[in-house]
Every structure is written in structure tokens, then in C-alpha cells.
Amino acid sequence: MADDEIPFPPGFGVKDIVAWGSTGLVVLDSATQTVIKTPFDPEQDALIQREREIYKRLVERGKHPGTLSYIGEVNGNSIRLEYASNHDMRSYLKQQGVDSGTRLGWMIQIADALAFVHDAGIIHGDLTSTNVFLDDKMNARLADFAGSSIDSSALLIHVTPSHEYPGNLLSPQGDIFALGSVFYEVTTGKRPYAGLDDHIIRSKFQKGDFPDVSSLGGLGHVIRTCWDGGYEDSKILVKDLESR
């Protein structure tokens, strides 16, 4: 797509881009230290509108420090969000070493945010480390709800196979399973079964054949329990993590 074809919000251009994904374009408003997420074309309007609906629900429920703050609507088809200056977790982990205490803290923050999201009637549906962001104080913030389900609506995006629950994706267990894969990546630096074809990963998961986590100690037990469906809800997962 040529620069002059990109549907930038008025007053923004290539120099302002901070992210570019399947659901739209994200530009930084440096004057307010917020970002504007806008669709590439009208076909993606539904994704941004779904995300706006979900953020409004989260605001109604009292907000949570583990999700990005929703500022409001822009130009009818875009949303303004808090800016997470350290970007997404996967990118950060590729560039920086992180101590075990920080990693555990992130896991607790994400799981606690997910419990809040589930209580609000939302299933994230695309929970990966690229959809968890790090703010200026290095706190983990759950985001990117463009493909999520609200009040049992259909998911608009499917999660990558390395994080895909071999069961009902419209369930808290679907997100908790994906969170196990996020924790695996945070702990080991790689996604589950990295390098294998998607159909092989799906086949393994259907058989309950997951990566070996025995060398990861207590966190390995947490990860395996996420994959095995052993947590009834995210609140129980939070308590287990806090005991580590």
C-alpha cells in the first residue's frame, strides 16, 4: 500500500506510525501521549467498532489497571487509547533480558486483567504476547480486543495455532489455554512448538500432547494446568501464581 493510500487520521502521517496489524493502523499523538487506532478500509470498521464496544464495557465496569485505558472515539471510525511506551511484550522480550521476578509479576498482572475481562462478559480470543503491552513503568497491559467476543458474540479473529485451545474458543478456558502459551513464551523465550507447521501443532494439542515443561519448576506446573484446563477461572490462576 502506497503512503498516499494509507487512511491516516487527519493530521498524521508515516512518521507517526507505531504499529501496523491485521485490524488496523496505530499512530502516536505525541502531544497527548495517546494512540489512535484506525481501520485500513471500510471492511475493518466492524473490528474497530467491536473493540470500541468492548472498551466501553470495561469502562462501565470500573476499568482495570491491567488493560489499556480507553480515551474515546475519533472521527467516527477510530479509537483513542493510552500509549504503552515499551510496546508489545514479544518485541520487548526479543530485545531485552528480563529477570524471573519481573516475568512472574507480568503473569500475575495479565491473569488478573483477564479475570476482570471475563467478569465483564468478554472473551479475548486472540491472547498472545503481541497483544500484551508494557507501559512506561513496565507493567503488563492487556489490549487488542478487535476480534474479541462480548456477551457470547462470535469471535472475529482466530488466535494463532500455538495458542489455540482444542475446545470451545468462546469460553474462559480458551483464553486461559492461550495464556498458558503466553506464559511458556515469557518463560522460555519461544512459542510452543515453534517451527512446526500449524496443522501439526493443532494435531498435537487435540491429543493433549504439549511441550515438556518439567524443567520450569512451579511455573511449568502453572503452564501445564492452563493447557490441561485445570483452572476453573482466571481468579484461581491468579491465586496459584501469587503463591509461587
UniProtKB/TrEMBL annotation:
Keywords: Kinase, Transferase
Signal sequence segment: none
Taxonomic superkingdom: Eukaryota
UniProt EC number: 2.7.11.1
Top EC class, one word: transferase
Pfam family, one: Pkinase
Gene Ontology molecular function, alphabetical: ATP binding; protein serine/threonine kinase activity
Span of domain Protein kinase: 12-244
InterPro entries tied to this protein: Kinase-like_dom_sf (IPR011009), Prot_kinase_dom (IPR000719), Ser/Thr_Kinases-Pseudokinases (IPR051681), Tyr_kinase_AS (IPR008266)
Catalytic activity: L-seryl-[protein] + ATP = O-phospho-L-seryl-[protein] + ADP + H(+); L-threonyl-[protein] + ATP = O-phospho-L-threonyl-[protein] + ADP + H(+)
Function statement: Component of the EKC/KEOPS complex that is required for the formation of a threonylcarbamoyl group on adenosine at position 37 (t(6)A37) in tRNAs that read codons beginning with adenine. The complex is probably involved in the transfer of the threonylcarbamoyl moiety of threonylcarbamoyl-AMP (TC-AMP) to the N6 group of A37. BUD32 has ATPase activity in the context of the EKC/KEOPS complex and likely plays a supporting role to the catalytic subunit KAE1. The EKC/KEOPS complex also promotes both telomere uncapping and telomere elongation.
Assembly: Component of the EKC/KEOPS complex composed of at least BUD32, CGI121, GON7, KAE1 and PCC1; the whole complex dimerizes.
Designated name of the protein: EKC/KEOPS complex subunit BUD32
Organism: Cordyceps militaris (strain CM01) (Caterpillar fungus)
